[in-house]
Each structure stands twice: as C-alpha cells, then as structure tokens.
Amino acid sequence: MTSIRKAWRLTLVALLILIILFTVTVLFPIAGNAGRGRLTRTLAKFSMWVMGIRVRVTGTVPDASAAAIGWASEGPGYMVCSNHVTFVDIFALSCVLPVRFVAKKEIASWPVFGLISKRTGTIFIDRTRRRAVLEIAEAMTNAMKEGRNVLFFPEGTTGTGEGLLPFHANLFASAVAAEAPILPVTLRYTKDGAVTTLVSYAHRDLFTVLKDICATPGLAVDIQVLPVIEAAGRERRDICAEASRVMSAALGVEDATAALEAKRLARAAAAERKEEVKEEAPAAQA
C-alpha cells in the first residue's frame, strides 16, 4: 500500500510541477499583483494536498489584503519571520499569505525550483559575500515600503522541527528601516498527532525527503500566526530577541537565542573579572 501511495503521490507531484511552471511563466506576467497573490495561495494549497500534508492554521493575519494577495491595504507590508524545517515550509506559509522569500543563492541554480523561485520574486542571498547582508536588507526594505510581504528565516538554516535555533538579528534592521510590522509565524510538522522530523532535511537530499513525504500518511503542519511585533523606532537586536521569545513560547521549546546571549554575557563578565584580577595583582605586590 505504501508503494502504491508513493507512486500515486509522485505522479501528482510531477503534474504539479508542470502546472506551477505554466503558472509562473505564462500566467504570472499577465495576472497583475492581486492575481499573482491569489494564484500563489491556490497553488500552495494544491501543493500541500498533492503531498498529502494537512494544513492547520491558528491565529489570523490582521491585514486581510496582505493575507489574500500579498500586498498591504495601506502602509508597508509585513516582515514575516518563521522557523525553517524543510522546502515544504514555502508552500505551507504561502497557504497563509503570499510573500517574497529570502533564500540562499544556491537555490537559484536548482532544477525547476530555481526557475520557480526566480519567477516568484525570491530575494537571493550570497552568503560568501561580505556586503550580501546589506544588499539583501536594502532589497527587503524597499519591497516592504512598496507594500509587499517579505519572509525570511531568522535561524539562517534548517532545523529538525523539534526546537528553534538561535536567531540572527541582522535582517531585522530592514523592518526598522521600513517601519514595517513583524509577523512571527511558527511551523510544526506532525504525523498522526506527534511531532515528526520526517519532513526535515536532516542531512538528506530534497528528492529523498519528497519520496518519504509522499509515502507517509497522517502528515500535518500546524501553523501559528502570532501577534504583530512593531519595529518602528526599535533596535534590531531587541526585536530579534522578542521574536525568538514569543516563537519559542508558542512552540513550547527553549529560547535558544536568549540562551546564547546569556552565555555571551557570562563569558564577557568572566573576561572582565580576569582583567580586574590582573590589574589588582601588581598593586597588591607594591
């Protein structure tokens, strides 16, 4: 039965890829902003059905226009920040609201997915270049000022889905510059109600993960849309710390960002005490 399910799902995936390619190459250029947003949500929901993953959402996006078409009704768009587990995140999050994603540059050269990413306006980051973060932050700021939703993964890499990794604060600066509201969102994948790592990369390639997903019944993703965090007039590190805190609490896991900061402060205090001892030693000898 598992083999039949996998073969059926993979056949649907092949059809899905053709549909997505047709949509982004033929329909997107003529659809307009609202049309592209609606097409994105429709394709995302269809993609999750094809992979056999049920989507459960709690919480709502305050701006109905941003949720429906990916553009704010007025003012800047949302900066959406989410934990990152797998390529499925892109489809799952697009079921909630259309966004421009921030992704590593390598994805642009992937077969099929690279073309789709380019046509859907993904902002690519080259992590080998020093100025890359500044350039990406500027691109994100401009997009949000135009009213677009932008999503990035503050962990900077994929996790297993069992907890959160420490957040990086750099790109939160773009929300401050755009005076954009930050929308924290959490993802948790389950199988028959229990948290699963089956959908995560976990040192596996994309196609292996896809085959496992297609062969496994009972998969679901729980998406929590959390209260908006205001960025205007705040420091990026404070915003980063708050986002990590509320997302960790929502998932019921350790706040890895706070834990890392506590270790940093402890090391700094220890180094300061060591310097004080060095300075006191000559005085005592005198």
From TrEMBL:
Keywords, in A-Z order: Acyltransferase, Lipid biosynthesis, Lipid metabolism, Phospholipid biosynthesis, Phospholipid metabolism, Transferase
Q: Name one GO cellular component term.
A: membrane
Q: Which pathway does UniProt place it in? A: Phospholipid metabolism; CDP-diacylglycerol biosynthesis; CDP-diacylglycerol from sn-glycerol 3-phosphate: step 2/3; Lipid metabolism
Catalytic activities:
a 1-acyl-sn-glycero-3-phosphate + an acyl-CoA = a 1,2-diacyl-sn-glycero-3-phosphate + CoA
Coiled coil feature spans: none
Task: Name the domain of life.
Answer: Bacteria
Q: Per its UniProt record, what SMART domains does this chain match?
A: PlsC
One GO molecular function term of this record is: 1-acylglycerol-3-phosphate O-acyltransferase activity
* GO BP term, example: CDP-diacylglycerol biosynthetic process
EC number, as in UniProt: 2.3.1.51
Q: Where is the Phospholipid/glycerol acyltransferase domain?
A: 78-190
List, alphabetically, the NCBIfam families matched. AGP_acyltrn
Q: What is known of its domains?
A: The HXXXXD motif is essential for acyltransferase activity and may constitute the binding site for the phosphate moiety of the glycerol-3-phosphate.
Q: State the family named in the UniProt similarity comment for this chain.
A: Belongs to the 1-acyl-sn-glycerol-3-phosphate acyltransferase family.
Q: What is this protein called?
A: 1-acyl-sn-glycerol-3-phosphate acyltransferase
Q: Say which species the protein is native to.
A: Sutterella parvirubra YIT 11816
Source taxonomy: Bacteria, Pseudomonadati, Pseudomonadota, Betaproteobacteria, Burkholderiales
